[in-house]
Amino acid sequence: MELSHLPPEILEAQREFPAALAACADLDALMRLKGAFVGRDGSHAARLMEQLKAAPKERKKDLGATVNALKNQWEEALKLRQGELERERTRAAALAKAWDPELPPPLPPQGALHPLNRLMDRMVEVFRPLGYHVEEGPEAETESFNFDGLNIPPDHPARGSADTFFFQGQADLLLRTHTSPVQVRVLRRIGARGADGVSELERRGGIRFLAPGRVYRKDEIDPTHSPMFHQVEGMIVGKGIGMHHLKGTLSYAMKALFGPAADVRFRPSYFPFVEPGAEMDVRCPLCGGSGCRVCKGSGWVELLGAGLLHPNILTMAGIDPGIWSGFAFGMGVERTAMMVSQTPDLRLFFENDQRFLRTMGGLD
Ligand code: PHE
Questions:
Q1: Which residues have C-beta within 8 Å of that of residue 296, sequence separation ≥ 6?
Q2: What is the largest CA-CA distance in the chain?
Q3: pTM of the shown model
Q4: How many Å separate Cα 340 from the centre of its chain?
Q5: How far is the CA of 330 from the centre of ligand 1 (A)?
Q6: For ligand 1, what atom is nearest to the CA of residue 183?
Q7: How many CB atoms within 10 Å of residue 175?
Q8: What φ, ψ does residue 105 adopt, rounded to 5°?
Q9: What does the pLDDT read at residue 362?
Q10: What's the 180 CA to ligand 1 centre distance in angstroms?
Q11: Is residue 336 a contact partner of residue 329, using CB atoms and an 8 Å limit?
């Protein structure tokens, strides 16, 4: 568009047009601007039309094209801005209608238990009707409770500083590597004889408890490892407790936890504090056992270690293994949570991303 032959006041108006358009805060202001530029009388466009009429014949064609182009440009831009302002007005009207000054203000978002805590609570609820209560132990634990009292020999690899966090300057103190030291603490307490010569174990006729909690191992963080994770320990001591009790209890618990179709299997395994020892797998909930990414093609997912209490750990606590027996198990909470909710990366449970936590990590 060749503008140089237009009058200076039109050139100036054209230069200022974009800023004037943007400055229109409402439709009234826009209508005033529209009147000034393209209105029927006295507008820039109207004046240009008059000049066009008065122009010498040979200039009419060129001038006419410029005037038309300019007018079209202004009208286009005005229409666009009008659309914007109309949408804004509709939105504001809807907001004003929705706001009821008599309603109470919206509540702030509520907090909730973390998905892992909910899963541990559910474990506790599953075992409570079977007579299990909750016991706790410290996360900063002694070597004696974490290893020695569990019949773990001094040269066992897990005792090395490559696997275990030790406290600097406190030779005997470490971050517990499993919840099993709670077994030792409880066994020592219930095995000790009172002034009347009777132990808590004898007075109760047995004990059953769960010990949920945090544990620590020197692992690099990756989708399936974290230096801090959770376990739920379980233990029962009674008379005549055998492997059949262990299998029955855990099969029942897994059905209560995962639904009646939950299927389990036990494989022989070794832990120094149980004899015999076993690992328990659940049939993969993702593929139903046919083999997939989650179960690495095997159809089963390993969930816990278990076994009958080793006579040595009873003896060390002053309990006669000729009279008393029991079983224990230790379940990985993150692993269970990942399996139930089909979450492929355990870091999601620790990153505090509200979008993930609001779905309860899929554990609802
Ligand atoms: N404490 C064992 C672990 O961390 C699990 C376990 C608990 C095994 C109780 C047997 C009995 O792997």
A1: none
A2: 128
A3: 0.72
A4: 13
A5: 4
A6: 9
A7: 20
A8: -65, 155
A9: 62
A10: 6
A11: no
Q: Tokens at residue 204, please?
A: 């109760």
- What pLDDT band is residue 95 in, cutting at 50, 70 and 90? confident
Please provide the DSSP assignment of 266-296 as one string.
EEEE--TTEEEEEEEEEE-TTTTTS--TTTT
DSSP 321: T
Contact 346, 226 (CB under 8 A): yes
Overall average pLDDT of the 302-318 stretch: 97
Q: Is residue 173 a contact partner of residue 166, using CB atoms and an 8 Å limit? A: yes
Structure tokens at 108: 């702030």
Strands 207-216 and 133-134: parallel
Instruction: Return the pLDDT at 363.
Output: 67
| Structure token pair of residue 272 | 């120094």
221 C-beta neighbours (distance < 10 Å), count: 12
Task: Tell me the CA–centroid distance for residue 121 and ligand 1, in Å.
Answer: 20
Q: Report angle CA 332, 336, 341 to the nearest 5 degrees.
A: 155
Q: Which value, in Å, is the radius of gyration of the alpha carbons in the chain?
A: 39
Which tokens in the block code for residue 139?
A: 């996360």
Type of residue at 336: T
Q: Is the CB of 305 under 6 A from ligand 1?
A: yes
- Report the C-alpha gap between 297 and 265 in whole angstroms: 16
Q: Which of 154-158, 275-279, 354-358 has maximum average pLDDT?
A: 275-279
What residues pair up with 213 in beta bridges, in sequence order? Answer: 231
What is the percent of the chain with per-residue pLDDT over 90, rounded to a whole number? 68
**Mean of the per-residue pLDDT values for the chain?**
92
Residue 312: exposure state from Cβ atoms within 10 A (0-12, 13-18, ≥19): middle
Q: How far apart are alpha carbons 173 and 167 in whole angstroms? A: 6
**Nearest residue by C-alpha to atom 7 in ligand 1:** 330
Is the pLDDT confidence value at 219 over 80? yes
Task: Kindly report the protein residue whose alpha carbon is nearest to atom 8 of ligand 1.
Answer: 305
Ligand 1 pocket member 306 (CB < 6 A)? yes
Q: How far is CA 269 from the centre of its chain?
A: 32
